[in-house]
Design a protein that fits this description.
This protein is α+β, with helices and mostly antiparallel strands and 683 residues long. Helices cover 49% and strands 20% of the residues. The protein has four domains: 1-57 and 272-421, no CATH class; 58-264, no CATH class; 432-519, no CATH class; 527-681, no CATH class. Strands 2-3-9-6-8-7 form a six-stranded mixed beta barrel. Strands 13-15-20-17-19-18 form a six-stranded mixed beta barrel. The longest helix is centred in the middle third of the chain and has 39 residues, at 263-301. The relative contact order is 0.11.
Length: 683
């Protein structure tokens, strides 16, 4: 009998498609490719968008950011280099509706801008909320900034406060008119504060609000833009100036450039991509099990066909090649279908991320297509082809036993190469070496553990079943299992790993959420009010009590920077740990209380109320900064140094949802220091 393997493979494909024998194989490969490609398309578009919009994400070619007003030297140097500048300041605060509109309030991200903003990117606004939420958006590019006496706000704030354009919005001591609905802001980024709705106003209106006080937490930014060479030169000058400032104890100033982009946005998207990649990895592992089992069933169903072809004299090589052709076509079709589903699914992800990713993303590249298609073909050839290749070597007499025999060297080689390729693709999909190693290593370890348990179970079954007294059905089943222990172990391992992947996919989310809920006390605060001024303290507390809130946390907040330990100046260069470097560069929220806070346990030293010159430090912070009881810390508060001795270390229950502090003075009052107040309560 002579027939080409191409013709035989094509005929077999159409026959098996009509018979429905490839449905499980196609479904498993399609789902795996869809999961992986959906994550790939999303990550690729987000990364391309970040690269394309790097200047817009910054608001300029480079940005100088600080937690205090910038030195005039930065603006002077930029002007000397022929660069444009635009200054902004932003901070969280409370916005209120007027009493006539209900008097509701909401935490907002306030931003004051000057003429010329933005240097890169565009501002877009809509006239009404309906226009801002329409698909497509009915908005327009704005060439300027809000006029004096007006604000632009995001639609979610109007919805929360029940307001509309043309109505007043109360900010501190000012009442400003809502002039437009903000739909696009180039440099909003993804800092935690910026998840609150944006309120943008003209910088000339900022002083009248009275919101900026000596202890206010404000982020000052100066963006520069111009010719690339001048921008690069300014970056080099600013970097050197910032480093020189550290030596003069001028801290909290940082340079943001196109290379760094907006790291908080990049980190947020990276975390989301890693989570989605983990889900895709588990889907791929589950699909590998499904492909292996489906291919095993497919091979068993074709025993008679292969035996007949062998009887008719068809060479083993032709039979094997025909199945390779058939599975190649199946792989191409299933991968293409999976890529189509993945492309549609990634649009669902974009809808879910609409609140975070508001920019128009570029089209995806070819990398997700190649990765998804490669995974589909690898899955099929690694886990589906080895049992099918056994068909080419099945003797006709084995049909009676319905047995394909032991794995041949060729099948073992295909399996080994396929598994290695599958592991490599898992590493590529994970986009993280540690995550990939954990996934591959965990998969391999689970297979070995389940294989060992399966082999022990077979041996125990063989020895525990007495053929003389046991039911006939049990005896026959035991003989069948014991006759081919290797295949039984493979099936047990495959099913167990598949169930394990399902458990991880289904239960992990539930366990995390239930654990978070159980760790949150029933009386935990669900409202936090920040930036309360001293003159607002008594009226605010009175308003809480009148509203029926008798129990609330009340802490002063003092902004201070750690400048010395035991008389020695500290700087970021003193630490290798990245978190320690950030802590030294930032300003701390200090507080004071004569009463030891609840959910704070003393782990070293002692808490002595009203002890002068004492300070209590959270033990995690102490470990990071290498602090201990007895160390003398110097904090700079509003330009004045305050020396205190560490008298205790505290273990803080951060899950309590209470107001907690890294550094706490055990005294009831600290006069002559700029202070704001924080309140937390359950409404």
């Amino acid at each position: 009998m002579t027939i080409s393997f191409w013709s035989l493979g094509w005929r077999s494909l159409w026959r098996d498609v009509r018979a429905g024998e490839l449905r499980l194989v196609v479904l498993a490969v399609t789902l795996a490719v869809a999961a992986l490609s959906a994550v790939g398309f999303l990550a690729d578009r987000l990364q391309s968008g970040l690269q394309r919009d790097a200047q817009q994400l910054l608001g300029g070619d480079a940005v100088i950011a600080s937690d205090r007003p910038l030195e005039p030297a930065y603006a002077a140097q930029a002007a000397a280099m022929g660069l444009q500048t635009a200054n902004t300041l932003s901070f969280p605060t409370m916005a209120r509706a007027a009493a006539a509109q209900g008097g509701a309030s909401k935490l907002v991200a306030l931003k004051a801008v000057e003429s010329g903003y933005p240097l890169r990117g565009t501002l877009r606004t809509a006239r009404t909320v309906d226009d801002a939420l329409a698909t497509p958006l009915r908005d327009a590019v704005q060439a300027g900034i809000p006029q004096a006496g007006t604000v632009w706000v995001e639609a979610q704030l109007l919805d929360a406060l029940g307001l509309a354009p043309g109505q007043p919005l109360l900010l501190g001591n000012s009442s400003l008119t809502i002039a437009a609905v903000l739909t696009q802001e180039p440099d909003k980024g993804a800092a935690f504060m910026n998840f609150a709705p944006r309120v943008m106003l003209n910088a000339v209106d900022m002083p009248a609000t009275g919101l900026i006080q000596p202890a206010s937490r404000v982020n000052y930014r100066m963006a520069v833009a111009g010719a690339p060479a001048q921008a690069k030169a300014f970056e080099a000058w600013a970097d050197a100036h910032i480093k020189a400032g550290v030596e003069r104890n001028v801290r909290g100033v940082r340079l943001e450039s196109l290379q760094g982009g907006r790291p908080e946005l990049s980190q947020t998207l990276d975390r989301a991509a890693k989570f989605l990649s983990l889900v895709a990895l588990l889907s791929a592992l589950l699909s590998a099990v499904a492909v292996a089992l489906a291919a095993r069933a497919f091979a068993a169903a074709h025993l008679d066909d292969c035996a007949m072809l062998r009887v008719l004299g068809l060479p083993q090589r032709t039979i094997a090649a025909s199945y390779v052709v058939e599975f190649a076509w199946v792989g191409v079709f299933a991968s293409a279908l999976g890529l189509l589903l993945g492309y549609l699914l990634h649009h669902v992800f974009l809808v879910l991320l609409a609140g975070l990713v508001e920019t128009r993303l570029p089209a995806p590249g070819w990398a997700p297509v190649l990765l998804g298609g490669g995974m589909g073909l690898t899955l099929l050839f690694a886990f589906g082809l080895p049992p099918v290749l056994q068909l080419a070597q099945v003797p006709p007499l084995r049909v009676i036993r319905r047995d394909m025999g032991q794995l041949r060297p060729a099948s073992v080689g295909v399996l080994a190469v396929g598994v290695a390729g599958f592991a490599a693709l898992l590493m590529a999909v994970s986009s993280d070496v540690n995550l990939g190693l954990i996934a591959v290593g965990g998969f391999a370890a689970a297979v070995l553990v389940f294989a060992g348990l399966g082999w022990l179970a077979i041996q125990l079954l063989r020895r525990s079943v007495n053929e003389a007294t046991a039911p006939r059905a049990l005896v026959l089943a035991t003989r069948q299992i014991s006759a081919r222990p290797a295949y039984t172990v493979v099936q047990i391992s495959a099913l167990a790993v598949g169930l394990l992947a399902l458990v991880l996919l289904v239960l992990l989310r539930t366990d995390l959420i239930s654990g978070w809920r159980s760790s949150t006390p029933p009386d935990a605060p669900n409202r936090f009010v920040i930036n309360l001024m001293p003159e607002q303290a008594l009226p605010f507390q009175l308003a809480l009590r009148e509203a029926g809130v008798e129990k609330f946390d009340w802490y002063p907040m003092i902004r201070g920077r750690l400048v010395a330990v035991n008389g020695r100046s500290v700087s970021a260069q003193d630490y290798e740990d990245e978190r320690a470097r950030r802590l030294v560069e930032r300003e701390f929220n200090l507080s004071h209380s004569a009463t030891q806070p609840p959910n704070n346990t003393i782990t070293a030293g002692h808490w002595q109320a009203e002890e002068a010159g004492a300070i209590s430090i959270e033990e995690g912070l102490a470990k990071t900064l290498r602090l201990k009881v007895g160390d003398v810390l110097r904090f700079e508060v509003a330009g004045a140094p305050i020396d205190s001795t560490v008298t205790s270390l505290r273990k803080v229950d951060w899950a309590s949802m209470r107001a907690n502090f890294f550094a706490l003075y055990p005294v009831s009052a600290m006069p002559d220091l700029p202070v704001t107040y924080l309140s937390a309560f359950k409404a």
